[in-house]
Amino acid sequence: MTSEELALASSNHTPVTKFILLGFSNYQDLQELLFVAFLLIYVMTLVGNLGMMALIFTDCRLHSPMYFFLSVLSFIDICYSSVVTPKLLVNLLASDKSISFEGCVVQMAFFVMHATTESFLLASMAYDRFMAICQPLHYSSLMTKGSCIQLVAASYAFGVVNSTIQSGNVFALPFCGPNQVPHYFCDIKPLLHLVCANTATAEMVLYIISSLVTILPATVVLTSYSLVWVAIGRMRSAAGRKKALSTCASHFLAIAIFYGTVIFTYVQPHGSSSDSNGQVVSVFYTIIIPMLNPFIYSLRNKEVKDALQRKLHVNNSPC
Q1: Residue 4 lies in a domain
Q2: Where do the G-protein coupled receptors family 1 profile domain residues begin and end (predicted)?
Q3: Angle, alpha carbons 73-75-80 (nearest 5°)
């Protein structure tokens, strides 16, 4: 829009009371198939992450900082997948694909909060691996229960701050008519396209804040794991190297997938990807990654496998 058109639209606008989520509406013949696929993924997400949390909480041999962080990660994955997936499932079968203005605000706020929290939690987990492998003599004194809780609280604090900034950045702007969102949930970029005002400042805020909350924890992750890889290379014990590599490789895989998709979606320059590409990439970090995380962190983890075997053999003591 030109500046004159924006001024006219702003002066004559009717406040938007709801948005229409058009995600995957181009695939009318696949709606039922997509519903079944996403439903199965969501059920696996709930079962996998709830199972991981239950296993960690009930087996005292898993009461360590690394598994405490894993249980929190599972909780966050359940939360931010649940913010998006149930509404997507409803919209795939319903003719009315609307969401109220207030519901859109809440969905965006909770999604941004939990996604940001996960970003910083992954950095905390990388720091935990650095301390365990590079500073083993100081690990137990530094990574106490209190310090772990503080790291989780700080991660949530960053999430709340970013959610407040981003939600205010979007919904303080006027929405004056177009209410069809080319996405399957209330995401920041698609909503900015519907604003009937100049969004240059809002897009700059999005880019700067998204870069900060992505690059800052990513720097912690890369620094920690760089030092970890060096320490692993210096280990004389082949068994020790194998165990450390097994744990860290799982962590690094999950981290690479998460940060890669987030950077592609939010940190890239405006207009560098299509709406369809954005939807496909968003599926990975909103739906697929929460399902994969418990499997990535457990399939190659001997301690988790042993804990699961102990649970299956009820006569054995968990400790």
Answers
A1: no
A2: 48-297
A3: 95
